[in-house]
TrEMBL record:
Keyword tags: 4Fe-4S, Iron, Iron-sulfur, Metal-binding, Oxidoreductase, Signal
Annotated Gene3D superfamilies: FAD/NAD(P)-binding domain (3.50.50.60)
InterPro entries xref list: FAD/NAD-bd_sf, HdrA-like
Organism: Terriglobus roseus (strain DSM 18391 / NRRL B-41598 / KBS 63)
Entry superkingdom: Bacteria
GO molecular function, one term: 4 iron, 4 sulfur cluster binding
Protein name: FAD dependent oxidoreductase
Record has 4Fe-4S as a keyword: yes
A Pfam family assignment: FAD_oxidored
Amino acid sequence: MTAFPRYFVPTLLLSITASAFAVTPRPKIAGAPADLVVYGGTASGVMTAYAAARQGLHVVLLEPTRHLGGMVTGGLSATDYAYFPIIGGYTREFYKQAAATYGQQDLDHPTDWLSEPKVGEAIFNRWLKDAKVDVRLGERLREKGGVEMRGKEVSALVTEDGKRWEGRVFADCSYEGDAMAEAHVTYVVGREGREAFDESLAGVRPDTPKHQFLWKVSPMDESGKLMPLVDPGPLGPAESADKKVQAYNFRLILTNDPSNRLPWTKPAGYESSQFALLTRYLKSYKEHTGKDPVLRSVTNPVCFANHKCDFNNNGPFSTDYIGKSWTYPDASYVERQRIWAEHQRYTEAFFYFLATDPSVPKSLRDDTNTWGRAKDEFTDTKGWPRQLYIREGRRMSGVYVMHQADLQTDRTKPDSIAMGSYNSDSHNVQRVAMPDGSVFNEGDVQVAVQPYEISFGAMLPKQDEVTNLLVPVCLSASHVAYSSVRMEPQYMMIGQAAGVTAALAIQSKVPVQQVPVERLQELLRKDGSILHFDQQAHHAISKIHPEP
């Protein structure tokens, strides 16, 4: 098995397990109290820290791994922008600087928004250094007792090494929302039913046309046994709630440049039988499509500079490890490590199978072998992305819960802090054996939206729970709304708003919920944020995306 990210390395399992049962040492103060402590060096965390530092705050940024940027520098190079004129502020500046690396001086074309992971990480590191943010890598929140409270205020975060990180305001910018949960903020996991917010896209979706088996494929083997990677069911009632989570995957950066290409490797414990259902699907592929399958038939590459592409999920059986993410949001660190490792093992096995198994059509095998992991990306993990794509985990139940209407019919907000425009986009949640002998992927949502405004209240816990915590990533939204707002540019823009909010809360000596919105919006606009769908934004968008 190839190397894993530092955060989840199998050889660390013993030490992590031992530390969980060790006698807890008395926490030691890490240094002078900060104005703002940010937990999670995702792209949102970087923007939160940077924006606050630009407002004059002393900021500490704690990141559990050794790298900054989350998915933006972890394989998601195909930026999910949709109507990119509404992306403003420091987020637009980040992408502008990335584009300048390749000689592009504007962001007027879709290709201007694509860049290599190493380019994004270098920009983030430079920005934080220039802003004098105190970045602490390898600092993970203590699993139990990681947040100290004084009444309704967070007083300190405690990391696994026993350090206490004191601050006046805190921001949980992690994909997991562990600080939020430790602060006893109310949150949900899974899908609401239709009745919760009267959402037509909510809950179990028996009509799931995308990334679906488009012809009948049996999930049973010759002996009548259910094949691997298929849930026996039954499928829940239409529009009903459940605790299941959309699929995660790794976004691989692959190259077809032989001088920069790593070979496909066989993972420990590899068994080709894991892909019995994929074998059956590929066997009937040409009969139903009239085409020989190639790598694009089972993945979605988006290509950019230096012969590289960001490979995402595509079709009914691909890089999404469907049904294997359900327990991740509330799991222990050890259990998350296992889930993370299984996802990487699955991904490695998937590509090794496509590249080597004789049951795979030759057209697909040959095409797969023209690609490989880029040697010059993720160099400390042998070309494997360091970040698992945690598309959705915990979701806060905050001051304002975004829901389907906020994306479709109630798209303006007087307290807007940023805008979104990407489709409602949830990946499949489960792969189920159906009573008619077919297999069915359930949960995918792909519904277009018009640009919408994001409420300030979506990143705020309720004031009767905690008064000095901001949550820009595991924000307050239904599953349906989160499926759009979860895109990295939105996380980043909300992060900028969080950083400015922290500064205003400290200056005004008020809870974060009582920050004057007009002043917040004034400062955001000053630094280029686009908060409302005004005539200027409408004109810019219409030039690129004319209305039908």
